[in-house]
């Protein structure tokens, strides 16, 4: 039996799962890595319609809550044998904005068996492009990729696997349908009003997108795929999507009075409730960006998640690039940041087993390293309150590869690198990670203090931990005598640490 179990586990080591908790539907894709390529072996989609389940106070209703959790329980059954590091689950627009999102995510983690990370619109756009690009043949063409979600629409310009521009707008097929077609009734007047509003929302981005230009336009997402299929089925377009074809579809919908009553070949029942909103967004996009023809991609966000996960496991983590870019942008003293990171790494190695510095779904050691590398970015704004500037920049910047929870962790670590320790910054951090935040903060604070002298000297003190909170640092003989500023700094730090439950002695 053990041999059989071992064989089963081994056979799943090359499986990857990506789960997209969208505003209109939840998607799951299971893929296997084969010779550097992804072979899809299973897909599952459920029309949960979270966005439609928001009440007037911006909270998910009990019905939406229950349906979402039920779907994730079914997803959880399918992925229970896939290694945790190979599973990525993300939430998008509705979960970014719902007032009770945190309660939903806590229950969702139990149902799915994995944590769910909320990603910003820019990160959503990056992953969409990555997924679409991996489904296209090799080419040097400049691409415009568009994805219509339930609550947001993303536009990306890029070549091959690299994007050069990301835009996320607050219009989606569900939100536009709810606002302009609340009872499902479609008229010439309300449709024109919806298109005008979508054009207005896209207009601030039009100049930048058109200036960058593209050789080919590609659409992803359920709305675009559905519209493309309807146009082809009814011979309103030879292939893909055209403006004239969409205008023919619009005429039929207005003639029918609603999508629910429309007798249109190729229109699936699951798409009827939000088709008109997606159509308004797509027509507005064609007009504003002067698009003549759009191809339809079968890949989208979930495929991008799979390829991004594979990249992380093969040391191609885009988060490393984001951290380096931020350092360069804010003119960070790279050598100093690296020395702080090396000392923090040494302290981590000596303490991670004693303090159990592990949290499912997070690379704790790398988060500590990134906090070290970014702890001084605020100095470029002002030395005064620089740690607060650093924390703000991390929390607010669009950093490719990072989800909101990771940025909150980094921001909380950085703001507490010196001075008074505040746990107020921990409020929105996952409970599973909140437990280890004080320990990681201590490691960062010690590393920063040790390198106060900025002499770029590698320092590897021995860290002894007694009864969890009693710390003792041992340096090489005479080192503290030769570094009196550091000795004073560590004595000052001992007073701060004492206020949040740690004692520190040095020799």
From TrEMBL:
Coiled-coil intervals: none
Catalytic reaction equation(s): [phosphate](n) + H2O = [phosphate](n-1) + phosphate + H(+)
A Pfam family per the record: Ppx-GppA
Domain Ppx/GppA phosphatase C-terminal: 318-493
EC numbers for this chain: 3.6.1.11
Protein's UniProt keywords contain Magnesium: no
Keywords: Hydrolase
Molecular function in Gene Ontology: exopolyphosphatase activity
Chain ranges of the Ppx/GppA phosphatase N-terminal domain: 29-311
This protein's record includes keyword Hydrolase: yes
Family: Belongs to the GppA/Ppx family.
PANTHER family according to UniProt: EXOPOLYPHOSPHATASE, RETROGRADE REGULATION PROTEIN 2
UniProt-listed NCBIfam families: exo_poly_only (TIGR03706)
UniProt-recorded name of the protein: Exopolyphosphatase
The organism's taxonomic lineage, starting at the top: Bacteria, Pseudomonadati, Pseudomonadota, Gammaproteobacteria, Thiotrichales
């Amino acid at each position: 039996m053990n041999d059989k179990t071992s064989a089963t586990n081994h056979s799943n080591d090359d499986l990857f799962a990506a789960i997209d908790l969208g505003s209109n539907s939840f998607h799951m894709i299971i893929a296997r890595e084969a010779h550097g390529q992804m072979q899809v072996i299973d897909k599952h989609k459920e029309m949960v319609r979270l966005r439609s389940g928001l009440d007037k106070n911006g909270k998910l209703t009990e019905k939406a809550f229950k349906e979402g959790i039920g779907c994730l329980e079914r997803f959880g059954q399918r992925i229970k044998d896939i290694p945790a590091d190979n599973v990525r689950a993300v939430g998008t627009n509705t979960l970014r904005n719902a007032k009770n999102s945190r309660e939903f995510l806590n229950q969702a983690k139990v149902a799915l068996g994995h944590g769910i990370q909320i990603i910003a619109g820019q990160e959503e756009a990056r992953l969409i492009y990555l997924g679409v690009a991996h489904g296209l043949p090799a080419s040097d063409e400049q691409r415009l990729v568009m994805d219509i979600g339930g609550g947001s629409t993303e536009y990306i310009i890029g070549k091959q696997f690299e994007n050069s521009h990301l835009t996320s707008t607050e219009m989606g097929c569900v939100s536009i349908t709810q606002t302009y077609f609340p009872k499902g009734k479609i008229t010439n007047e309300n449709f024109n009003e919806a298109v005008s509003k979508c054009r207005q929302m896209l207009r601030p981005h039009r100049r930048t997108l058109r200036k960058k230009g593209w050789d080919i336009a590609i659409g992803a997402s359920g709305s675009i795929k559905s519209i493309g299929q309807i146009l082809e089925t009814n011979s309103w377009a030879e292939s893909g999507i055209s403006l004239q074809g969409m205008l023919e579809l619009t005429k039929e919908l207005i003639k029918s009075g609603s999508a629910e009553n429309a007798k249109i070949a190729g229109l699936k029942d699951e798409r009827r409730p939000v088709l008109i909103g997606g159509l308004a967004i797509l027509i507005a996009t064609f007009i504003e960006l002067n698009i003549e023809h759009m191809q339809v991609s079968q890949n989208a966000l979930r495929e991008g998640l799979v390829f991004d996960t594979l990249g992380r496991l093969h040391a191609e983590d885009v988060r490393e690039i984001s951290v380096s870019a931020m350092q360069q942008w804010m003119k960070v003293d790279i050598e100093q940041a690296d020395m702080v990171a090396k000392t923090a790494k040494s302290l981590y190695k000596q303490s991670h087993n004693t303090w159990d510095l592990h949290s499912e779904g997070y690379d704790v050691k790398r988060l500590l390293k990134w906090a070290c590398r970014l702890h001084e970015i605020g100095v470029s704004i002002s030395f005064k309150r620089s740690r607060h500037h650093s924390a703000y920049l991390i929390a607010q910047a669009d950093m490719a590869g990072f989800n909101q929870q990771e940025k909150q962790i980094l921001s909380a670590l950085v703001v507490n690198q010196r001075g008074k320790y505040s746990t107020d910054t921990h409020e929105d951090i996952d409970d599973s990670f909140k437990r280890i935040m004080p320990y990681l903060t201590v490691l960062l604070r010690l590393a920063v203090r040790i390198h106060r002298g900025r002499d770029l000297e590698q320092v590897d003190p021995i860290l002894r931990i007694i009864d969890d909170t009693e710390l003792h640092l041992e340096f090489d003989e005479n080192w503290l005598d030769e570094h009196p500023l550091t000795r004073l700094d560590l004595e000052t730090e001992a007073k701060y640490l004492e206020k949040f439950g740690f004692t520190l002695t040095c020799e």
